[in-house]
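Regression check, zinc ion case 488:
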Amino acid sequence: MNRLILLAITLTIASAAHSQQPPADNSWTKVYRASATRINDLVHTKLDVRPDYSNSHLYGKAWITLQPHFYATDSLNLDAKGMEIKKVAMINGTKEQQLKYDYNDFNLRINLGRNFKAGEKYTVYVEYTAKPDEFEEKYQRNQLLGIKGLYFINPKGEEKDKPTQIWTQGETESNSAWFPTIDATNQRCTQEITITVPEKYVTLSNGKLVSQKKNSDKTRSDYWKMELPHAPYLFFMGIGDYTVVKDSWKGKEVNYYVEPEYGAVAKKIFGNTPEMMTFFSKITGVDFPWVKYSQITGRDYVAGAMENTTATIHQNFAQQDARELIDGNSWEGTIAHELFHQWFGDYVTTESWSNLTLNESFADYSQTLWSEYKQGKDAGDAENYQGLQGYLRSHSEDKNLVRFYYQDREEMFDAVSYQKGGRILHMLRNLVGDSAFFRSLNVYLNTNKFKSAEAHQLRLAFEEVTGRDLNWFFNQWYFSNGNPEAEI
Ligand SMILES: [Zn+2]
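Current build output:
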């Protein structure tokens, strides 16, 4: 994710809070943030959803296939936020068997009716209505980022000059506000989704658009299929009136979804994407791993951009007109950032928010790498310098890069996980040399593909390639805090 705007808001809130001197609650400093325990593992998620624009609700049906991770279990705990649950059943062939459950606005605890053994797959069916606005109103409190996951923008068309759109934002744990899942970064599954919308709108989701069916009520059902597994926070759905500008990379679709008036300039904004895909594939030694790559813009989007697998969303400020683009594309760095996440974040995913830098340091550093490649070493150095200054200005000397104690997981999206992490990668590159650095990234990606990872896995990849013990480096820079201070 790229949180340009969020960071600005956070700083404002932080300085306001500082001036009021509220009593400090430090109880969080004793709460170790462990990775989510895996009792059941997601295997596949099949969704059938239909938005209700008049109420800003989503009618959903979910078929969730799971299996116990190791120990036998007779229960399943799904994250399902702010929903009205209508039915929960076990699917046995063509038959449904009703299951007992408890629900408390956040968790759906299901009694599976019998023990399931490790590796024994089962499919649970949940029929529900998601009510994101009601959920957020009831529970938002002081969260830094919206928690409702599903956003209806101008749903009744009452605001002039604003398009009607729907988009979702999963990171950190908000996709469970529009479909039931195990909303943890160390889960992943394949996915199918059928989205039924008014026929005037286009849809975007993860994976491939397999079919479109016109219905008799002036709606259309689009069926998207994602055949490679990814984490639940990377699921995405976007709906609206967009012009889809088509591009390609090695025979794969590369699409830019923009508001119609930006159709003519879409390639001036996003048109370097295929070249970036070639560049990132080359330096990692891993070809862009997914079936397609689309980018879409979202009105009133809550962050800068988000790397949903094969379906990145950008803040609508990405849309610059021809006159603005004369001065250069201000969004180029963000396009690189989200694209590199398709490897670092989506293909290999951080095991927990504590290890977030495994996603964000690489995305941050991609902006240096792309500038260096596209505009030369000075441009890369300038990008690097700006990142360093961003970290130093944040006064985060007391924060470890990998952090097991934090007050709110949203705080992990800071100048340490991003800018400092990017500079640590740059230092590591200088330490081991270019060819060892990129070879190590290749080993890290290949060893951990379609899995979650923690910082030690990165260390092990570098140790395997270089033949050197790097515990000292990781202990100092990943598991400790601070930075060198020079007095001249
Ligand atoms: Zn990011």
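Comparison notes: The longest strand covers residues 40-52. The CA atoms of residues 209 and 216 lie 21 Å apart. No diff flagged against the previous build.
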